[in-house]
Write a structure and sequence with these properties.
Layout (H helix, E strand, L loop, with lengths): L13 H11 L9 H13 L3 E5 L2 H11 L7 E4 L6 H8 L3 E4 L11 H14 L5 E3 L10 H9 L4 E5 L7 E2 L2 E2 L8 E5 L12 E5 L2 H10 L4 E2 L16 E2 L10 H11 L2 H19 L13 E2 L5 E4 L5 H10 L15 H4 L9 H7 L2 E4 L7 H16 L1
Parallel strand pairs: 2-3, 2-4, 4-5, 5-8
Antiparallel strand pairs: 1-9, 6-7, 6-12, 8-9, 10-11, 13-14
Helix pairs in contact: 1-8, 2-8, 3-4, 3-7, 5-6, 10-13
Bound molecules: pyridoxal-5'-phosphate.
């Protein structure tokens, strides 16, 4: 019996459902105690001092850019191999964006390419204010090298760790901001831990956390310590910045908090699935995901590369076989919206080569061994054609 196997899928238990129901029966559906509890749990798990929940990683990336002062005339650089949100966040701030090519083995922002591009930009007086490296597939970028390159020029760093909660770098958890100013997680259902929709920004700097808290809720504060005008009564609050409503609801946070209990199990299962794919593909003309020695991936995605001449046929064979393969991602600058800004093919050769070869295979904790064997068998058939 053939049935559709998606590339990613949430795992929701009775405990998760009960946690959400409890909030529904409580006094606060939003702005209650569960969001701060979830923030604290994620901060602790990630070894970061502060965590600011948002209604999406996209919102979190936007307030992260705002907190670092990104504005009109500023430049932000990111990886071409990412979801459009990493780059759009800079555009929301009226900054301009550019892309740093990826390393051919990790598919993450290449530290050497970054260092060269920054040195050139310093000469041209066109340095970016912020760079946004992306931990593609859940494998951390080489953050020590990226940090060294950026720090030389006083450039700030936001890690787009949307794929990477539960991963580590240099045996420390992704999100600890050792080599960055802010790190952002996504809790969309295809990601490692879900809140339905949701995201979080982590930082070790209290000022950045405070600014992000303001900006996720209209730029409004009631904190007597920071009021700019005299308090006029118990009703009084101040809007001090132009913020947004990017708040996470307690209903969503309850799901996330309950899911977080299983993060270790989720990663363990994903590691097993990756190992089984690796083993199955050793004798096939398939490039399996190379792993950087400093990084332990959360395995959000398992991406293979195939002969570019067969890529489309292999992809279509798998889709026809009811396997929900996907491609993460077409280089962002090849999107029509970005081409209209003047971006053209050829900008990032490694990213474009990846795009001509990459296929994301099904990877999620509840993928059964039988389903995985079906996927492997169909890949073998597709490649042999
Ligand atoms: C999913 C994702 C986002 C956006 O996350 P949302 O929570 O859906 O806003 C941003 N960047 C990357 C790399 C992602 O994979």
């Amino acid at each position: 019996m053939a049935s559709f196997i998606p590339y990613g899928r949430q795992s929701v238990t009775e405990d998760d459902i009960n946690a959400v129901v409890e909030v529904l029966k409580s006094d606060f559906l939003t702005q209650g105690p569960v969001v701060p509890a979830f923030e604290q749990a994620v901060a602790q798990r990630s070894a970061a001092r502060h965590a600011v929940a948002a209604n999406s990683a996209t919102g979190a990336l936007h307030i992260a850019c705002m907190a670092l002062g990104v504005g009109p005339g500023d430049r932000v650089w990111t990886s071409p191999l990412t979801f459009v949100a990493s780059s759009n966040a800079a555009l929301y701030c009226a900054a301009s964006v550019d892309f740093v090519d990826v390393d051919a083995k990790t598919y993450n922002m290449c530290p050497l390419r970054l260092a060269e591009k920054l040195d050139q930009a310093a000469l041209d007086n066109t340095l970016p204010k912020v760079i946004i490296p992306v931990h593609l597939t859940g494998q951390s970028c080489d953050m020590a090298a990226i940090h060294a390159a950026a720090d030389k020029h006083g450039v700030r760093i936001i890690e787009d760790a949307s794929h990477a909660i539960g991963g580590s770098y240099g045996s420390e958890p992704v999100g600890n901001c050792k080599y960055s100013d802010i790190a952002v997680f996504s809790f969309h259902p295809v990601k490692i831990v879900t809140t339905g929709e949701g995201g979080m920004a982590l930082t070790n700097e209290p000022d950045l956390a405070e600014r992000m808290r303001l900006d996720r809720s209209h730029g409004i504060t009631r904190d007597p310590a920071v009021l700019e005008q005299p308090e006029e009564g118990a009703w009084y609050y101040e809007q001090q910045r132009l913020g947004f409503n990017y708040r996470m609801a307690d209903i969503n946070a309850a799901l996330g908090l309950s899911q977080l209990d299983r993060l270790t199990d989720f990663i363990k299962r994903r590691v097993e699935i990756a190992a089984a794919y690796d083993a199955a593909f050793t004798n096939m003309p398939v490039t399996t995901p190379w792993q950087h020695p400093e990084a332990a991936s959360s395995w959000h995605l398992y991406v293979i590369q195939v002969d570019p001449n067969k890529h489309r046929a292999v992809f279509e064979h798998l889709r026809a076989a009811e396997i929900g393969v996907n491609l993460h991602y077409m280089p962002v600058y090849l999107q029509p919206y970005y081409r209209k800004m003047g971006f053209r093919p050829g900008l990032c050769p490694n990213a474009e080569a990846y795009y001509s070869r990459a296929i994301s295979l099904p990877m999620f904790p509840n993928l059964t061994q039988e389903q995985q064997q079906v996927v492997i068998g169909e890949v073998a058939k597709a490649i042999a054609q």
